Amino acid sequence: MSSKEKPTLGGQRIKTRKRNIAAPLDPAAFADAVVQIYLDNAGDLELIAKSIESSDLNFSRYGDTFFEVVFTGGRTQPGTTKPDEGERHPYSILDCEAKREQILPSVIYIQKILRRRPFLIKNLENVMRRFLQSLEFFEDNERIKLAIFTALAFSQKLSGLPPETVFQPLLKDNLVGKGLVLTFITDFFKEYLIDNSLDDLISILKRGKMEDNLLDFFPSGKRSAEAFSEHFTKAGMASLVEYNDKKIFEVKVKEMKSALTTQISEEADLSEVTETVKQHVKDAKLPEIEVVRILWDVLMDAVQWSGKNQQQNVNLALRQVKTWAKCYEDTKLMKLFPEIVRSLYDQDVLAEDTILHWFRKGTNPKGRQSFVKALEPFVKWLEEAEEEE
User: Fold this and answer.
1) Predicted pLDDT of residue 378
2) What pLDDT is attached to residue 129?
3) Is the pLDDT of residue 364 over 60?
4) Is the dihedral of CA 268, 271, 274, 275 positive or negative?
5) pTM value?
6) CB 229 within 8 Å of CB 245
7) Residue 101, Cβ neighbours under 10 Å: how many?
8) How far is 357 from 115, CA to CA, in rounded Å?
9) Degrees, nearest 5: CA angle 276-261-279
């Protein structure tokens, strides 16, 4: 399509031929009437919108047919995306180039139509749902145009297109299995993120009930964190990969906390608890410093904080720690002791004098063998800093 044919919402006015169009009494005649409006106005979307506004066409009855003409240039066969008999126009969304600057005017045009005829919102949903459920019947470049249109529609906050209308119809097994959904959603994400933040995209995914189910867009054989990372990294969406990794991590942490909380509350055997820790660390590839935080949170949450004063609460906490103290013998958590002490020091929880006193005098033989030696580099740093002062 030449530049003179592309839809516009302004610019040069084209002299058009006007016809008296009788109000059609069937969808085919309605489609022909709308097509004629496009042809009479040579694709100028502003003039088309005005002509539609002043017409006496029965949009409330043939709303679906109207959007078929907008998207495909004419009426489609009932229940399909195939063209039906009748006139067609060359100014549709699927006839323009697969570029945002070519498709955006149609988004603004539809927004204008919906503001004047809000009852058409449901018809837009119907047609979009049908098209998205029929992606396999479109050509590759047509699917790209649909993805660009959808992204621009959300960017422009096009009324009548809630996220569930887009995401849920896509989740047909045959479409997902062929990889068509993943391709569509990738094009959609890329286009949307040009003008919007990742937070905006996540908000849309939440409203579409897909925030925690992004892998559902992948064929069943590729539903893994590794496949997700590889695909969207290659597509230039590292921020989305980071977000998904964080979500997966949070789920794994929650699962580990839940399992340990149950075991501790049921006073499971120490060996069973230790094995649970090891298995979750292996399966989830959790950083060991995170495991320390999880264990501490679970142990402290299990304490019945019923002490009447601070000392009683301290005794309760110590009793809980002593109960599970042997855990460290079967794990690598003791290696993180220097990091824990350093973190507490940085947060002003432990004072320098306290750490030095404990290091020099306050440990029993077992503690000195297991922990103090690992703390030597940090203590040396403290001592040197003390000497400089």
Assistant:
1) 85
2) 93
3) no
4) negative
5) 0.71
6) yes
7) 9
8) 74
9) 15
Residue 255 CB coordination number (10 Å): 13
Mean pLDDT over residues 158-172, rounded?
86
pLDDT tens-digit readout, 331-350:
444 555 676 677 667 766 56
pLDDT, average across residues 241-251: 90
363 — pLDDT class (breaks 50, 70, 90): low
At 362, the pLDDT band (50, 70, 90 cuts) reads low
Name, in order, each residue with C-beta under 8 angstroms of 119's C-beta and a sequence gap of 6 or more: 59, 60, 63
Tokens of 179: 């990889």
Length of the chain equals 389
Q: What amino acid is encoded at 359 in this protein? A: F
Residue identified by tokens 């942490």 is: 253
Give how far Cα 210 sits from Cα of 69, 127, 130, 201, 215, Å.
Answer: 30, 21, 20, 11, 9
What are the structure tokens assigned to 135, written together?
């992606």
* Residue 99 φ/ψ region, left for φ over 0, alpha for ψ in the -120 to 50 degree band, beta for the rest: beta
- Joined together, the tokens standing for residue 13 give 């006015």
